[in-house]
Write a structure and sequence with these properties.
There is one protein chain. The protein folds into 5 domains: about 100 residues, GIY-YIG endonuclease; about 60 residues, Winged helix-like DNA-binding domain superfamily/Winged helix DNA-binding domain (Arc Repressor Mutant, subunit A), CATH 1.10.10; about 180 residues, P-loop containing nucleotide triphosphate hydrolases (Rossmann fold, 3-Layer(aba) Sandwich), CATH 3.40.50; about 180 residues, P-loop containing nucleotide triphosphate hydrolases (Rossmann fold), CATH 3.40.50.300; about 90 residues, Ribosomal protein S10 (Alpha-Beta Plaits, 2-Layer Sandwich), CATH 3.30.70.600. The chain is about 30% helix and about 25% strand. About 45% of the residues are buried. The structure holds adenosine-5'-diphosphate (ADP) and zinc ion.
């Protein structure tokens, strides 16, 4: 369909709204008509809702009563590219199109009146009387052609008082208008000098530049240890896109969107990029949305939802830390931003760069298979070397049961403190203790609504369920046997480790970093920036410190419980542990001082631990790939999860069994169904969840078979069904 498809006032158009309906609705085009792609406000029952003009209305019924579109919104219309992206991603994730559309409209607050300001430009008339001040105003306006200014700007440039300008407004010589506050972005300059790249880096940057300027879709996996200069290299790809007059998007996990990172980009290009993150205000989002749509924001650096911005001419998408599990949105539309980035780029002829020190097995396999170009940076930039890695065998440390820092690890930390360096203790568990147990009767406090234990958070003085967020005060008596003062914490969390550290090193400055200890992402990022400047001697942290922060004085990382991810039924556990441990170890010794990473483990001979120590990534991936291939698991086979949920556990299982029995549509394509079984999270917010896993070979039209299969089931009452294509855990 052409971008110019226009509908005269009164004609029937089909509007897709953001409401959870299963189809588009017909309306009459408003006065003045509208184009396909226009964002509009339409009546729906007693309400007004937002939608997009999708095409011509059907008109195969009595449509004399069809209501009219209320108004066309002041927003950049949706482009054909975005239609295609939404349609394809909806089909891929088996999500209703209206839910996909919501991803494009929620962020900019479409439909809300934007914040306004008065602006001034040249009007028609001539002044009744010429004065020096008036002449200055007219000269200033003439110099800038059709541009408009705020009262203050114009007053300053013409060096006149505001009353002079207001006087001219009265005579119609200067025109006063209401205008939304959309400040354009200052243009970025790709010609500013970059850092002098090493030979390796320059070679990689050159390959990327060729890909970006080709104007064709392509994906490159940029692999390199932390500190090898991946960021420097992909910023050159951004420069290539800007030179070619195309826009660029850099995606990072939310926590890595720090002021430090934005400053680094500003230093490279001489001006700020558009910053799209959870802390951005609605006004800022609206501004970015519009500027991106009009092509006046050349570079967006943001979190995964930036993928749904209305780029006019997108030439490059970088997905940094591409293996990061936070790219998978686990609520609402279940999409993986890494995969959607590839889809979006293939539609608009853009290049994708997937950057990581420890790529996902999926991307590694795609590169092996030749679908992605492979680029590697093998050494760290400058004098820094990879950290020395070792294990501490906990079986021989003789640690009392409620202590977690081994004597060997303590000695290593002491040495760093003496030298004025930083040490990090890493544990991937939030809160104070994972279990709270009654020492009289053995009762463990669980969540009332979920199948999960409540986790004690001393900092917040509450017990919190990590599934649903439910919290309650810490009881003094056991809820089961009512014994007083018998509730005891079992096992370590990051807060408890912090407590132990304070006892071990009373004079050290200790910073405990856990997402729930900070009011906002911004506060947390500020704390991290302070630590990078040296505000702490010992850093205690969870997964979030494993991501690309740069702590120049950090020379030791102690992993408290390296075994944590090795057990459990998740087939991805090995991959996760490998990535996490490598990332954490990569924190140590970025600058001049060499680093050490020590893993406390009860299983020093475990194959995953051994390949981490040996730094044998290729070996690890190959072994892991072989196992997955033999089992027909992703990325060598395809998986989809069907999650049924409802308040009544029997009804949920009945529905699951009914689906499992009627699996002809799946058998027809050679797919198998497993389950129903309790979902990885078996109960959330009072709803029971069961999961069916569907396994198919790689080249099957799985989505089509799935939609035929699930359409057989009528969801009664409060039963709900969600499809999770490529589930993260299996
Ligand atoms: P990665 O993204 O692989 O972790 P970075 O691009 O962040 O690596 O580089 C690590 C550090 O080394 C950064 O401080 C960066 O500015 C610096 N660096 C990397 N390459 C160069 C170079 N060629 N010249 C100067 N500094 C560099
Ligand atoms: Zn809960």
């Amino acid at each position: 369909m052409s971008e110019q498809m226009f509908f005269e006032a009164g004609t029937l158009v089909s509007v897709l709204t953001t409401q959870p309906l299963d189809r588009a609705l017909d309306y009459r085009a408003p006065e003045g008509g509208c184009f396909r792609g226009a964002y509009v406000e339409v009546p729906l029952g007693p309400r007004k809702v937002i939608g997009v003009v999708w095409g011509a209305g059907k008109g195969d019924y009595d449509y004399s009563k069809v209501r009219a579109i209320i108004r066309v919104l002041d927003a950049v219309p949706m482009r054909e590219e975005m239609f295609s992206f939404l349609e394809k991603s909806a089909a891929y994730t088996l999500t209703p199109l209206s839910a996909m559309l919501r991803l494009t409209t929620r962020a900019p607050g479409l439909g809300d009146p934007p914040s306004m300001q008065k602006i001034y430009r040249r009007g028609e008339g001539e002044p009744d009387r010429v004065t020096a001040a008036r002449t200055k105003v007219l000269e200033t306006l003439a110099e800038y052609g059709d541009l408009a200014f705020t009262l203050r700007e114009l007053g300053e440039m013409a060096a006149v008082t505001s009353s002079v300008i207001k006087g001219l407004v009265k005579q119609g010589v200067v025109r006063e208008e209401e205008s939304p506050r959309y400040m354009p972005f200052v243009r970025l300059d790709p010609e500013l000098p970059s850092k002098a790249l090493t030979e390796d880096q320059a070679a990689a940057a050159a390959v990327l530049a060729v890909g970006v300027t080709s104007g064709d879709y392509g994906t490159t996996l940029l692999r390199g240890v932390t500190g090898s200069g991946k960021t420097e290299v992909y910023l050159e790809a951004v420069a290539a896109a800007l030179r070619a007059g195309r826009q660029a998007l850099v995606l990072l996990p939310e926590i890595a969107l720090t002021a430090e990172f934005y400053t680094r980009v500003e230093a490279r290009f001489g001006a700020k990029p558009a910053e799209w993150h959870s802390g951005a205000t609605m006004t800022e989002r609206r501004r970015i949305w519009r500027m991106v749509g009009e092509g006046n924001a050349q570079l967006v650096i943001g979190a995964r939802s930036a993928l749904f911005l209305p780029f006019q001419n997108l030439g490059l998408i970088v997905v940094d830390e591409e293996h990061d599990t936070s790219y998978k949105q686990e609520e609402g539309v279940l999409y993986n931003a890494r995969d959607m980035a590839v889809l979006r780029a293939s539609i608009c002829g853009a290049h994708v760069v997937l950057a990581s020190a420890t790529p996902s097995l999926e991307s590694w396999a795609n590169a092996q298979a030749g679908k992605y170009t492979k680029l590697e940076l093998t050494s760290r930039f400058g004098p820094a070397v990879m950290p020395t890695m070792g294990t501490i065998d906990m079986r021989s440390e003789g640690l009392p049961s409620d202590r977690w820092v081994s004597p060997s690890l303590k000695k290593e930390v002491d040495a760093r403190l003496e030298r004025g360096e930083q040490a990090m203790l890493f544990i991937n568990r939030r809160g104070y203790a994972p279990v709270t147990l009654c020492r009289a009767c053995g009762h463990q406090i669980g969540c009332d609504d979920c199948d999960a234990r409540m986790v004690e958070h001393r900092f917040l003085k509450r017990l919190i369920c990590h599934q649903c967020g439910e919290s309650k005060p810490m009881p003094t008596a056991c809820p089961s046997c009512e014994a007083e003062d018998k509730m005891a914490p079992i096992g370590p969390g990051v807060e408890r480790l912090g407590e132990e550290a304070h006892a071990l090193w009373p004079d050290a400055r200790i910073a405990t970093l856990s997402s729930d200890m900070y009011g906002s992402a911004r506060a947390l990022k500020e704390e991290i920036a302070g630590i990078a400047q040296g505000s702490a001697d010992i850093i205690i942290g969870t997964q979030l410190v494993a991501k690309g922060h740069n702590f120049p004085k950090l020379t030791l990382v102690g992993v408290i419980d390296a075994d944590l991810g090795l057990t459990g039924s998740d087939l991805r556990a090995a991959e996760r542990t490998f990535q996490l441990m490598r990332q954490v170890a990569g924190r140590a010794g970025r600058a001049e001082a060499p680093g050490t990473a020590l893993l406390q483990t009860y299983q020093p001979d475990h194959p995953v631990i051994r390949s981490i120590l040996a730094g044998d990534e290729e070996g690890f991936w190959k072994a892991e790939a072989k196992e997955r291939e033999q089992a027909g698991m992703p990325p060598y086979g395809r998986l989809a999860g069907i999650i049924l949920s409802g308040p009544d556990v029997a009804a949920v299982f009945d529905a699951g069994n009914q689906l499992a029995r009627n699996d002809k549509a799946l058998r027809d394509v050679g797919a198998q169904v497993y389950g129903p079984a309790p979902a990885p999270i078996a109960r959330v917010r009072g709803r029971h969840r069961v999961r069916l896993l569907v396994k198919a070979s790689k080249n099957v039209a799985l989505q089509r078979a799935l939609s035929i299969w699930i359409s057989q089931i009528k969801l009664k009452g409060d039963l709900r069904l969600a499809v999770d294509i490529d589930p993260q855990s299996f």
